[in-house]
Amino acid sequence: MTDELMKKIDEQLPPDEELRDLAEFFKVFGDATRLKILNVLLCSELCVQDIAKAVGMSESAVSHQLRVLKQMDLVKNRREGKTIFYSPADTHIITILSTGIEHIEED
């Protein structure tokens, strides 16, 4: 390996801490239940009860998964009275999911 190539690699390689954070970020996408919830939220902003109905899970299980998604800044929420509505945190989430689907659907 040339010194020039090594320098280029050093300049482009993110710091170890960023790589660990990125690995944790992608771990969240490694769970089919969370992916199902995220895809449901792409259709509409929903409350826990509606998400649970849409994915065929208990409200408790959905709440647990939403907590994980919220901790990783993948979903946001807003309160309307006593009801909390969830939606994707930003357009990056939509891009990540759609890019992943495109990749696995390629021939």
Helices and strands in order:
Elements: H1 3-12, H2 16-28, H3 32-43, E1 46-47, H4 48-55, H5 59-71, E2 75-80, E3 83-88, H6 91-105
Antiparallel strand pairs: 1-3, 2-3
What is the total domain count?
A: 1
CATH architecture: Orthogonal Bundle
Note the run of SSEs as H and E. Answer: HHHEHHEEH
What is the topology, as strand order, of the major beta sheet?
Answer: 1-3-2
- Uncertain ranges: none
**Helix- and strand-based class?**
alpha+beta
Number of helices: 6
Tell me the span between the first and last alpha carbons: 35 Å
Percent of residues in helical segments?
55-70%
- Number of strand elements: 3
Q: What does the main sheet amount to?
A: 3 strands, antiparallel
What is CATH's topology name?
A: Arc Repressor Mutant, subunit A
- What's the CATH C level? Mainly Alpha
Mean pLDDT: 94
Radius of gyration: 18 Å
Shape: elongated
User: Can you tell me the CATH superfamily?
Assistant: Winged helix-like DNA-binding domain superfamily/Winged helix DNA-binding domain
